[in-house]
Amino acid sequence: MERQVVPNRDNSLNATFSSSHMKTVSQLINQETRQWDKHTLNCLFDRDTVNDIFQIILPSTGKYILRWKPTPKGQFSVKSAYKCIMLDIHGSDNANFPWKYLWKLDLPQKIKHFLWKCMHDCVSVRSKLSRYVSSIPSECPLCNRESETLNHLFVQCDTTKRLWFDLDSNIAGNMSNMNLQEWIANWFAPNSNHGESHRKFVQFVRFAIWEIWNLRCNVVFNNAQVHVNNLITRVNKDISVWIDNSVKILANRSTLSNNKVVTPWSLPDFEYLRGAQSIHGIANDEEQVAALAALSAIRWAKAAAVQKLHLEEDCLNVVNVINGSLGSVDWRNNNVISDCKSLLESFTSWKCIFVHRESNEIANSLAKRARNYRVDEIWNSEFPLWLKSLIRDELNVNLS
Ligand SMILES: [Zn+2]
Fold first, then answer.
1. Bigger pLDDT: 111 or 191?
2. Residue 114, pLDDT score
3. How many Cβ atoms from other residues are within 10 Å of residue 192's Cβ?
4. Could you give the CA distance from residue 369 to residue 307 in angstroms, rounded to a whole number?
5. Which residues of 335-363 are buried (b: 16+ CB within 10 A; e: fewer)?
6. For the chain: N or C, fewer Cβ within 10 A?
7. Distance from Cα 155 to the centre of ligand 1, integer Å
8. Once rounded to an integer, what is the mean pLDDT over residues 339-360?
9. How far is the centre of ligand 1, averaged over its atoms, from the C-alpha of 369 (Å)?
10. Distance (Å, whole) CA 181 – CA 117
11. 2-26: per-residue pLDDT in tens?
12. Chain segment 52-87, per-residue pLDDT in tens
């Protein structure tokens, strides 16, 4: 048994467990009932750990599966492997920098990418290029005095300082002796000013950084001259074009979402078993709720000797994984899914399709009932009045 086999627990295993004769997870499972052996667990772990272990649902059939710890779904990905290697090499993968906020910024992709390159110090400034190509001078093309590092180009260069001042006289104060990377990171700091005027100011600076880089490239490749007024015009134009486009995109989106029609659910046009169940249970998340609901529906159908099963689910991940796309659910739900799949094999035929929650008001009401009353309710043929009237309203079907 290795560390972190229990979700949410990063602590190493306790002394009682370490000194016991236990070597494998299977020793903690009652092999007859295929359930956790509560007595053994209580002897070995504290109460919180036992509760966490009980939240891991064991499959009634199946075998052990290898999982990749660094991803929540337990599936290997190159991205997560890269992150692990960077952590090993640098002790950090810039992990404290809020990358997800960078990628969600209201900015053109090229500017976000450029800021990302700045944070990783991989912009092709001359101090870098001249190390590999001797014909490239290392001097800053804007001032021709000092070596062009990223920090010199955007912070220390006299020409850039003048550009910043003319763009906005508050910029020097906002930069306050930080280097470029610290300055960028500071925009995302939790204690940073999040007011509307500050947000606009930072947005302006991000466009300006991009245009200063364009200007620098123009000087290098086209022998362009530095004209402050041109720079200011370009930055303001970029921003107004971006805002105009964003407004158009938003307007399109809202038209699309207003046009969204949820297809109402209808009774399947084949012979079906009449019954309804509303099952109450405890689960870690919505995905597990859906997986457990699927399992109990499949068990119900099997007990009723159904041969052809038509299963509808409102959780797309669960539908995908039942239909065969491995890794679409959290690894903790894999055991429930593997039970679903092994039971499904015993049906003559089956299909599992996605139905939007809002489409099936009847199923939605049964789920709400289970949540509110916390009881299991099963109706095999005689439905209560409230359910009959719901079926009549939703499906236009009159049940006797
Ligand atoms: Zn310079």
1. 111
2. 95
3. 12
4. 29
5. bbbbbbbebbeebeebebeeeeeebbbbb
6. C
7. 9
8. 88
9. 69
10. 10
11. 334 555 555 556 667 767 777 788 8
12. 888 888 887 766 677 787 887 788 888 888 888 777
CB 353, CB 316: distance < 8 Å: no
Cα of 93 vs centre of ligand 1, distance in Å, is 30
List the structure tokens of 173: 């104060």
Cα 44 to middle of ligand 1, angstroms: 66
The Cα 24–Cα 31 span in angstroms is: 13
State in Å: Cα 112 to ligand 1 middle. 24
**Distance of CA 43 from the midpoint of ligand 1 (Å):** 69
Q: How far is the CA of 156 from the centre of ligand 1 (A)?
A: 7
Ligand 1 mean position, distance from CA 203 (Å): 24
CA–centroid distance, 240 to ligand 1, in Å, is 29
pLDDT: which is higher, 113 or 92: 113
Q: Is residue 358 within 8 Å of residue 253, measured between CB atoms?
A: no
Answer whether residue 93 shows pLDDT above 80: no
Ligand 1 centroid to 137 CA: how many Å? 13
CA–centroid distance, 221 to ligand 1, in Å, is: 16
**Crossing angle of the two packed helices 109-119 and 196-222, in degrees rounded to 10:** 80
At residue 3, the pLDDT reads 39
The DSSP code sequence of 274-327 is --EEE-----SSHHHHHHHHHHHHHHHHHHTT-SEEEEEES-HHHHHHHTT-TT
Q: 205: CA distance to ligand 1 center in Å?
A: 19
Q: How far is the CA of 311 from the centre of ligand 1 (A)?
A: 67
Using one digit for the tens of pLDDT, what is the confidence trace for 145-190?
999 999 999 999 999 999 999 989 888 888 888 999 989 988 887 7
pLDDT single digits (tens) 292-309 = 889 989 998 898 888 889
Length of the chain: 400
The 3-state DSSP class for residue 24 equals: coil
What pTM was computed for the model? 0.50
